[in-house]
Amino acid sequence: MGEVFAGRYELVDPIGRGGVGAVWRAWDHRRRRYVAAKVLLQSDAHSLLRFVREQALRIDHPHVLAPTSWAADDDKVLFTMDLVAGGSLVHLIGDYGPLPPAFVCTLLDQLLAGLAAVHAEDVVHRDVKPANILLEATGTGRPRLRLSDFGIAMRLGEPRLTETNLVVGTPGYLAPEQMMGAEPDFPADLFAVGLVAL
Question: What is the CATH number of domain 89-197?
Answer without folding.
Answer: 1.10.510.10
